[in-house]
Amino acid sequence: MHKEIIADYANVQELAQQLKLSEAAYRRAMTLAGLVPDQTSWLRHIDRFLIALGALLIVAGILAFFAWNWADLSHLTKFALVEGGIVGAAVLAWRFGLDTIAGRVSLLTAAILTGTLLAVFGQAYQTGADPYGLFLTWALLILPWAIIGRQTGIWMLLQILLNLTLIMYYTQVLYPPDGWWQLSQLFGPLVWLGTTVMDSTLASYLFVLNVIALLIWEFGSYRGVSWMRGILFPRVIAFIAFSTVLLPTLVIIVAAGFEEQIRLSVVSPTLLLIATGAALYYYQYRRHDLFILTCSLLGVIMVITAFFIRHMMSGSGSLLFLALLLIAQVASAAWWLRQIALRWETRS
Amino acid sequence: MSGSTVTLNHIVNNLRAENLLSTEDDALDYLENRPNLQPWYIRTMVGFGAWLASLLLIGFIASITLMFDGGYIFIGAALIVCAILVRQRSDRDFLVQCALASSLAGQALVAYGFADIAGHGEFEIFLGFALVISSALFFLFPDRIHRVIMVLLATGSLTTLLYHWEANALVPLLGPALTGILIILHNRMPTLVAGRHSELLHPLMSGLMLSAFGTLLLSTAYLLPELEADFLFYPRPWISTILLGLLFIYLGRLIWPIVANTEDTKSLLLPYGIMIVIITCAWYAPGLLLGLIVMLLGTHSGRVTFTGAGIGFFILFLTAFFYGIEVSLLTKSITLVATGITLLLSRWIILKVILTDERQGGS
Question: Is the pTM of this model over 0.80?
Fold first, then answer.
């Protein structure tokens, strides 16, 4: 009895290489595997890709237009343009239906344009409100669409907005940044966002926020909610959750002594430990996901390596030791992941 | 078309039935003992680990005082040779990792050693050597991850050399050139696989794709005018747009005859016209065309990683393009909205007009 192996691209290439297939046999194998698109397949791809990419570019273009802040354009015209876009996109979503790709993209477009409307409002009336208010209001306004839309895209947007709200509230209301933190803003918003999670307390709040979202999603998936069965949302959220506690843990290990920041040092490493243990169990035995297992192991490797860098760096010999340690860890991780994949394959 | 339900057994059985397999025993044996392939994220982790370990190895060797001239070259070459021998003889994870890290460290040491001996123009020699050695090791070192890294190293060295020679004007040609090679390999894939070049082909294609991405991202990089007024990172990005546009149109022949179900040139004028409009709209943003090309190649070969990479690069380029200062926000806005509307119109035209014509022709 042979193993039942899915004929995806990588497996067919491996088959062709190992069995030394002729050109004709290779072409036939690709066709049999369904990897050569026919008319129906091309049309399906065109339908999906072009509508998603087209909508993405238009939304980005609208954002760029309002960021340009054309002074000659009256407030009324600006509002009319954005609100017209929102209403138009919502009507299209209704007309196409929320279960079609066109309907989903239209609703997501309306959700993104809602944020543009809030930004234009702030631009026009100089409300002076803190940015966290914009993100929170945006999240609250699109919540009904997220509930009725039943799609990953809007929930992902909502989760990003909640993360931004928390970061903005923490850094602009509770603990405004000082010292080198402010310097990081010079390197752009993405770098600045990355540096904010080096604050262990904020990172812990973000971790909790993302883990709650992940748990809700996994529960929905477990209960058989069809639109929650995708792998993208849990993977992205799990990655963010890991990163929020991994970065401060590495900073604590490498840059600060435990005795210097005792309150902060305990939180992130503890959460990281719990998250790693839980992920290694859940995604190995309950819901198979090699990607999240890989992320968990990568975190473990980084922590162990950072620990040895901090405590064993003396003389040139330590560099050789660290290199071998790193190689051993990565090789063990790759071997273990392969065993896991084999075990899943055998059981299925 | 869906590859999700078909199994390798099904394919092998069909090939046997159609007498397309030369040795049936080998096929049965392969299905029984097939090794488990690693997904891309595990390969990325392994590659990252090897790269980091190689840096530590370099640090270790560099910290040892070498008492004779050419010491770095000697140790570097020894590391590379050992790495190749180990990798040729073993598939064990630990040894594979050691070999990867040793090879990367060895290359850096040999390149530095040569530059050290030459004494002048060190940077040029370092890069030139990196280019040559990475090209040679692409063939010599039998490992997929290593081969991808070698392609990246070679193209990275070449790009840096162009800047070093102040040949910035050639940089916009690089991305389209790499993409052109990628398309040639894609077209010749069945022949190359049948010619037993599969082991080289796939890492080469992955490396070329990533290199093209990197090169096109340079078009969004900028230096503040106050810092370096005369330096142009990516002069005349429209050159890339034109060249990538030509490749994009060339790729149209993969889709349109199938979608429109005709080879008639007249009937295909409309879809090619749409492509030209997309190219014109994306004049300031050549990366958008590259994203579309890679998506197209991925879809055409059922290679999901390419399709995903194309989408990922499209979004990444869009973000980088948004933050660049070479073009005003108004121009960016017009570029993005116009390209977006063209894509939506293309979808409508393809799904409605072409199919309607076909139906009418059929009836």
Answer: yes
